[in-house]
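User: Assemble these into one structure.

Assistant: Restating your components, then the assembled model:
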Amino acid sequence: MHKLLQNAPDQEIMLLGNESLARGAVEAGLAFATTYPGTPSSELSLNLFQISQETDLYFEYSTNEKVALEVAAAAANSGLRTMCIMKHVGLNVAADPLMTLAYVGVKGGLVILTADDPSMFSSQNEQDNRYYGKFAGLPVLEPSSVAEAKDMAKAAFELSETLQEPVILRTTTRINHSSAFVTLGDIKERNTKGEFIKDPMSFVTVPAVSRKLHVKLLENLDKAQAISNRSEHNILTGTGRFGVICNGVSFLYAEDAVKDLGIEDKVKILRIGFSNPMPDQMIEAFLKDCDKVLVIEEGEPFMEEAVRSIAQDAGISVSIKGKGDNLFSRLYEFDPAMVKRVMASYFEIEYQAKEPVDTSNLPEIPQRPPNLCSGCSHRATFYEVKEAAKALDMDTICPSDIGCYTLGFLPPLSTGDFVLCMGASVSSSCGFAKATDKKVISFIGDSTFFHSGMTGLANAVFNNHNFTLVILDNGITAMTGHQPNPGVDMSLFNLEGYNRISIENVVKALGVEHVTVVKPFKVKKSVEAIKEALAFEGVSVIISKEPCALHAKGLKLLKPRAFTVTDRCKNHRDCINEIACPSFFLEDDKVRIDATTCVGCALCAQICPENAIVPLKK
Amino acid sequence: MDIKRLIMVAVGGQGNLLASKVLGEAALICKVPVRMSEIHGMAQRGGVVESAIVFGDASSPIISDGEADLLLGFEPSETLRALNRCNKETTVITNLAPLPPFTVSIGRGVYPEMDTIQALIKERTGSLIAFDAMELAIKAGSPMSTNIVLVGALIQTGILPLTRESVEQAIKTRTKPAFVDMNLAAFNLGFEAAAGAA
Ligand code: SF4
């Protein structure tokens, strides 16, 4: 049985934040879940995927976040408790349904989990998704700890049903990827039989209907505000004339700081867990009781601005600080020592920080940047595209996309000139091709292509753009931990009842006239095919098809067969200089291959001018 | 209860995740509150994994620069890189078996001398326990048990509020049944190595 399904109330188990969230949803009787994978939210989806294989929970990996939210909206409006999971930037993709779903509302509880990533550990920006709550007019809940994540996930369903609105549950990386003991609760029975009761005047958002729905939304927001004002998620602790208003993990840092600074009698903390709408009366009462207030929140001054406006409204003139003034930054995540230091300085408390050791005169430590795996087919494709462009003497611009292959921008592959968001490789190619006279070659993975590459490609064909799109089809969503997508063979997961879409057929159906499928580990053939594609006027597509090496190895579909460098090697080092596979190393100034990591893709063997690289004899 | 803060740094694939699991389980056995957090910068693709584990009555799951009581490095150059987490009292434990980054393997970067690494850590921190944990892991049965060798050394310092028995118990329940004996041997070798080094 899945560990999150155990019916053992009051038992304490160690859970990852994402597992805690999943358990909370299970305890709430979650019946339906949709997602597009994205770090730091991926393990939450993975656990629900696993649970769905053991229970009647319906779970799907949707093609993108907009689709995921629309699927979820229907389930929730059929009365099912539903969760829709994505990383922060995913909510941008889902923003269209989000804004109007707020008007329509839900019948069964719908919790939209958005995982923000302050410091951008694995994201292209650090946007603060609390603003989506404000923007759409939806309640936002924010847990501070792993244990609270479970309880809040559970409570979010109740809140959603009380208000008949979706609830945004906002976490940050440090919640999703932290672990702690969590006390299990009861599991509510799951209702998986939905029913949709037709009511066009509530569900069909033509202008006449939407005008009424907007009124309803604002009334709901008033109700939400009243709930926020007495919400158990907004916690007041401590006593004293100094006030701290904080949220999320900042609450933990503030608690530790108060203890470490020994100012338990001087500081009271208002932890906001229900952050949209803000609990205005609670805050007003809090401010009236303070001589000085510090707002501690990662990201944007979301609460700070609200607190200021509440103070202004109530005619309170106490000093309220947060961002700026040498206090907190809008950049990156916070840490306990930073919070301690700022609190000490703002509240004028004597404090001696633990001095980190001096690292100024350490010798340079070689960097350890991530690299494509040994045997990753992307390496071969990048190499071949570069060779083909070189042979045709083409000056190129290479927009890339989001996935493992983004790493192709690093030397020596150095392929990747522009990365924006999912799917932008294709659409930005249209722009670069028109705006410049360079040859544009873009790169997109299979999952990203289904996510939002197809529409860009339709645009390219319709508007008759001129570029080559390389689809890196490794049959899996690799970077986020090997999730399915519509092009994946689901028998790899031992699952039945799915269909599989051929990317080649899709591309042809979109009207692309020059489509070639290559096997990237056949170097010569691939280079020739790519040359033809590059020379084609109009939209050409290369589909480079080869399973993700890491995934195939994990499934034992790939039986590594290592190669070795023989003494025919004349030390040209083309292998190291051009493809930089992590299996290479130098020994006595000679190139060697690490037989324990080489999978035998034979890319290097094919580019060695001396044919010095051969399979290792067992 | 005293708060103890431990930073573990490793290269993807060195098994520090399992090490945290074992320590977490031991904390449960010893009824010590514990919070951990992990950042894996594309670990599977050769990046660095950093875990923070906070034992005792603290709320935060992460550890600021200068605030680690213990630094456990699975790879010597990564131990050195994480030195900013230490203060002058921190106890540092490091494996001495290097895993040179790719840039070094292909001759584009210089790996610091092992003696230099040790001297630099020693002169800046409270104490250093350094030994080849990989060698001991092989002695225990497999290089895969390097992580547990290091856990053994960590427990020997007596800094964490965990008993030796609790960790051995955690090894029995948290590591694969087929490897329990090997891991117990690895734990013991690490424990002894640290005792000898101190
Ligand atoms: S996980 Fe797969 S796609 Fe990603 S770098 Fe490794 S082999 Fe390539």
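Residues A 372-373, 376, 378, 404, 474, 478, 548-551; B 45 surround iron/sulfur cluster (CB under 6 Å).
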